[in-house]
Amino acid sequence: MRIDGLQYANWSEKIFRQLRQGGVDAVHVTIAYHETFRETVLNFEQWNRWFEQYPDLIMKGQWASDVDKARDTGRTAIFFGFQNPSPMEDDIGLIEILHSLGARFMQLTYNNQSLLATGCYEAEDTGITRMGRQVIKEMNRVGLVIDMSHSADKSTIQAADISERPIAITHANPHAWAPALRNKKADVIRAVTENGGMFGFSIYPHHLKGKSQCTLPDFCEMIARCADQFGVAQLGIGTDLCQDQPDSVVEWMRVGRWSKDIDYGEGSADKPGFPDMPEWFRDNRDFGNIDDGLRAVGMTPDEIAGIRGKNWHRFFATNFVPQG
Questions:
Q1: Overall number of domains in the chain
Q2: What is the pLDDT of residue 269?
Q3: Is 324 domain-assigned?
Q4: What CATH number is attached to the domain comprising 250?
Q5: At how many degrees (to 10) do helices 287-296 and 216-230 cross?
Q6: What is the pTM of this model?
């Protein structure tokens, strides 16, 4: 079983076929950065058209059982998520509607302060807001997973403690290994994993040691050390693969509608746009390299199977369903 905890590709038949070639049974895809509710619905519509066009390659994922169905039928299950709470606007009632449409993950922030929490680029982290506490409660109720990948430390730790259900950091790496603003300190990772949450390792170059020059042994050794420190059962992969996206998309990701200035984000001021991927992971066909690298650093077959996808599958099974 292979599950990727996050991708934001420029989707096409080519990429859908590469998912199959790489044996990817399920992937969490970003369908909103700064979109309003109505704009997000249009993105759901686009995916419905792709499901109609490529029924032999992809299918809509809503429950953990859909991963099994996809495996049995040689397809990839697509699970939807948002990197910002903008699709719910300022209306807590939209959370249940978004879940019913197929959303399964929602970040409480994307780098900046939101109505719910503080993003990792803010100078002051005030933690979870009053509305944030209510939104967490509602997300718990309906089965929409709280994702803190782009959130600040205090906000993330508070979210893990406030939430009655496990939360996730779907795509990041340890700050001690690669000190990017978006990477997570040990106490943050521990707060998430000790509460049963998941931590997905990112292959986005700005979050790697050595960036695009990061080596496979370095990446896999980092995973092995995290397994020792936090427990392998709470770890997975969340590549943050942005394959085939034009550089212009970075402006939408970083800026949205909140600023008139260009903010290309951490690590890319000298080269606006997407960085080059490391040579050992260009696209979904390269997942086998990670398996080889984890074996080379001494991880067991069971540990590798968990990181490949079984840990995400278990998390999906218990956290996508409504409470009660």
A1: 1
A2: 53
A3: no
A4: 3.20.20.140
A5: 60
A6: 0.96
